[in-house]
């Protein structure tokens, strides 16, 4: 294990590519600071980043279980449900990230030239994978501690059970990651990790909702009861570690030991190369009728980039899902409008900026194309606006299906459309004027704060007064004047900025032509 200790000390636990691709000068500086344990430093960073959310999960779960302390069977069923969900997230995330780690890169190629066993290299990357599941692990441990302390279990015995459960999940995940490593493309694995992160965010929000609703009220919900009974079923292997039957715990321990043995045997055979299936020969090298010919080559190219970039999935889905969450947890028909427009207004600029920045990476090649700059930029503006306004319309349709539709929602559609146009223009402009240094950072830090200030200021300046008027809030005297003044001023500013940034973007495109 001396080799593993050296890898952890000098390389660390980060999978981030920007940490791997460093200049020779920075590497020399790091060599002079070889006494710093990179793995330990990364663990400290992980601890401080996951601690706030873990504390919240602990407090919220503790309050929930304190409410259920008088009905221990329901408390146990609810605990089994949350543990089952976190266990699934942990396994899926662990396997996905592990498969992503088992791909050839500069670090792996270097390590393979050293006198280090392939088993050790595989184990090292599995530990790196484990560190990338810090948030899921933090949520899991916080939930377990909250249950044990609030229900007054034997905390020491419960901690041992939790450790056995985590060893079981990790051993099974490690075997699956080794078996399927390199089979799935990196793109799908990054998308999977993005979806897991989104799911954890909404579980975080769900615990906040349970605190306000009162968990006892959910006892009248038939679907929720059915879900609890399924989670507590004897067929749910994810809760066997916490079973009162010793035989179930022994089965889990046996499976864990066998899985670890299989992993160690397979670890020496990991190829670290991405595998591809057989690609059939393409007879038609040129097709007159193709998607790009129908949609336009630039538009089709940008759409493909959008689908391949996992960051887009987060930017598109998060505002929509958060809006739907607010819709179902609030009685107000406009409760979902404000957060969606405010968040999507900022994200639309990032989407436009990413598309534009990606085009500018190959500026020398793009200039050789018989395409005008405005025709290159137009799809970068159209796609984010179209996607976000479509999501807004879908949310409006969902509210109509649930009987919460209001004709005033149509006003929000028009306002949000104008906001998204401004956001796309601002994003495209600053990605050209003040580009970021990192790959997925379309703007500089200063430009990012400026964009957030512009979009949030205008969005809230329009939406808050409109919400007050639509909800028929009691406004008197100067409050009415202030509300109307803020609304009119924000609308005028919106259209003035659309014109200004359109002019600025057009001017900078002429300069780059």
UniProtKB/TrEMBL annotation:
Entry keyword Transmembrane: yes
TM annotation in the entry: 39-59, 79-102, 123-149, 155-179, 191-210, 250-272, 312-328, 340-360, 381-403, 409-432, 444-470, 482-502
Keywords: Membrane, Transmembrane, Transmembrane helix
Keyword Transmembrane helix belongs to the record: yes
Name the record gives this protein: Uncharacterized protein
Gene source species: Fervidobacterium islandicum
Lineage: Bacteria, Thermotogati, Thermotogota, Thermotogae, Thermotogales
């Amino acid at each position: 294990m001396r080799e593993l200790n050296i890898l952890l000390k000098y390389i660390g636990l980060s999978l981030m590519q920007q940490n791997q691709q460093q200049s020779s000068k920075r590497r020399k500086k790091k060599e002079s600071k070889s006494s710093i344990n990179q793995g330990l430093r990364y663990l400290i960073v992980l601890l401080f980043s996951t601690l706030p959310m873990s504390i919240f999960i602990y407090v919220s779960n503790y309050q929930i279980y304190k409410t259920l302390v008088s009905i221990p069977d329901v408390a146990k069923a609810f605990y089994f449900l949350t543990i089952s969900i976190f266990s699934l997230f942990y396994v899926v995330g662990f396997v996905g990230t592990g498969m992503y780690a088992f791909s050839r890169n500069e670090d792996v190629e270097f390590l393979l030239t050293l006198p280090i066993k392939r088993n050790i290299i595989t184990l090292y990357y599995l530990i790196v994978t484990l560190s990338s599941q810090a948030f899921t692990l933090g949520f899991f441990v916080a939930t377990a501690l909250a249950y044990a302390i609030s229900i007054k279990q034997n905390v020491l015995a419960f901690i041992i059970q939790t450790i056995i459960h985590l060893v079981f999940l990790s051993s099974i995940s490690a075997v699956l990651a080794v078996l399927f490593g390199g089979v799935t493309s990196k793109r799908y694995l990054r998308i999977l990790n993005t979806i897991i992160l989104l799911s954890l965010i909404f579980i975080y929000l769900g615990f906040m909702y349970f605190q306000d609703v009162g968990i006892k009220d959910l006892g009248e919900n038939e679907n929720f009861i059915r879900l609890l009974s399924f989670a507590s079923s004897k067929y749910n292997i994810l809760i066997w570690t916490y079973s009162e039957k010793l035989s179930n715990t022994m089965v889990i321990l046996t499976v864990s030991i066998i899985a670890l043995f299989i992993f160690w045997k397979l670890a020496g055979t990991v190829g670290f190369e991405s595998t591809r299936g057989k690609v059939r020969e393409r007879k038609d090298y040129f097709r007159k009728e193709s998607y790009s010919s129908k949609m336009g080559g630039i538009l089709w190219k940008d759409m493909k980039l959008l689908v391949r970039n996992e960051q887009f999935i987060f930017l598109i889905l998060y505002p929509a899902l958060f809006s739907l969450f607010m819709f179902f947890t609030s009685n107000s028909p406009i409760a979902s409008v404000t957060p969606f427009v405010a968040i999507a207004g900022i994200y639309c600029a990032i989407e436009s900026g990413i598309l534009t920045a990606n085009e500018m990476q190959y500026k020398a090649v793009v200039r050789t194309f018989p395409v005008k700059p405005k025709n290159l930029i137009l799809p970068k503006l159209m796609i984010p606006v179209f996607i976000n306004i479509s999501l807004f319309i879908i949310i409006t349709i969902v509210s109509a299906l649930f009987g919460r539709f209001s004709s005033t929602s149509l006003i929000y559609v028009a306002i949000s459309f104008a906001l998204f146009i401004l956001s796309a223009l601002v994003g495209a402009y600053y990605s050209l004027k003040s580009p970021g240094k990192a790959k997925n950072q379309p703007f500089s830090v200063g430009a990012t704060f400026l964009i957030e200030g512009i979009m949030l200021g205008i969005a809230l300046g329009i939406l808050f007064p409109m919400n007050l008027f639509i909800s028929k809030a009691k406004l008197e005297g100067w409050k009415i004047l202030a509300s109307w003044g803020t609304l009119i001023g924000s609308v005028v500013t919106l259209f003035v900025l659309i014109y200004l940034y359109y002019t600025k973007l057009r001017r900078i495109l002429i300069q780059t032509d």
